[in-house]
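Q: Give me the 3D complex with iron/sulfur cluster.
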Amino acid sequence: MRATPPPKTYRVKSFGCQMNVYDGERMAELLADRGIAPAAEGEDADLVVLNTCHIREKAAEKVYSDIGRLRKADGSKPLIAVAGCVAQAEGEEIMARAPAVSMVVGPQAYHRLPEMLDKAVAGERATDTDMPPIAKFDALPARRRAPPSAFLTVQEGCDKFCTYCVVPYTRGAEISRPFADLIAEAERLVAGGAREITLLGQNVNAWTGEDDKGRAIGLDGLIRELARLPDLARIRYTTSHPMDVTDGLIAAHGEIDKLMPFLHLPVQSGSDPILKAMNRSHDADGYLRLLERFRAARPDIALSGDFIVGFPGESEADFEATLQLVDAVGYAQAFSFKYSPRPGTPAATMADQVAPEIMDERLQRLQAALNRDQIAFNQASLGKTCPVLVERKGKKPGQLLGKSPWLQSVWFDSDVSIGEIVEVELAEAGPNSMAGRVRASATT
Ligand code: 5AD
Ligand code: SF4
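A: Here is the predicted complex, encoded as structure tokens.
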């Protein structure tokens, strides 16, 4: 590679989960700290960071087509860094396959991006896929401004080894960030304007730590402490694993007003043999009983989940068990995917891989059921008046967009400021959003 002038502008493109969004924001801050400016919408960037996702094959392949397409208006290539889980899993392959890439940085090493950039400017290619836990959080600059709804990564990695999943390999073992660091970061987010914090982790409810009195606490204890921050109005968390649900977490939903009535608890399948083959450590009935307990603690809780169709060996009867579970739960929203074999995972070499056309057909049926329930949930909300946190301006003048407590997107006309919480009557229900009418300016 040839030496290049130091970049003046950057763009970070994040794919995949919310943890990547958080990591992408932190990388942007690192670059901004170096005096590199974010490229304006529609303008060339001298440095592009592709913050990638490896969870499904499509997401991973997209990286290579993106690299091929990246070009400035004058035809030259920008400096390209590949970050995230594809970088972790396929670092060497990327370097071999994509000569335009000068930096490959794994999700645990991105605090070293500035040093790698120095090398890249000098014409050297650099890869860093070390996995030192916590170090990256300590090394990152303090945050000055925060959006009304901000993310805070509290836990990373996964020890569950579901047989289809690459996360334990790309993000490493489960680690929890220390309590004091999280309280300090939350305080900074709130000082920077955040009204809502979503606690993030691949297994967020596996978070454990010690509070300032040295007592061992779990995620519910952390939520309780965060709820004491006066200017923080809302707390959410995602993604949870059924195995790590505690009595305390369920109780917290009934006791802490600031904890929003929403739970994302992936189940993946409604069939016990498939759950077993997935190494999920729960069966369908155990999952349903957990949800009942959340509903008993917080009757209006909105439920969300993740599903995989076409896992190896999934029969029509197995799939129908998934549809039955969906009917039994009545999800407010959910994510569903076709099984995608990931290299190095046990399921990739299992017998009885399901044919693509069967997967397509099952995904369509599942999504029809989930959409039906999402619309039903939104329709059941009609006429309710609820607090909405204003997150941004809408497309039309005077229009604002915010979130209901149940994570519905709500559009309405108003001149209140972004970051305010207003009482809005939910007046029209669409499949993916609600239209509302402002009742009054509330808690702010
Ligand atoms: N194929 C399809 N979906 C997957 N997920 C994880 N691994 C795979 C895979 N190999 C889905 C799961 C998980 C979500 C983040 O992505 O549903 O909960
Ligand atoms: Fe992947 Fe399972 Fe861990 Fe979730 S719990 S990250 S699906 S291994």
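A quick observation: The two ends are 54 Å apart (CA to CA).
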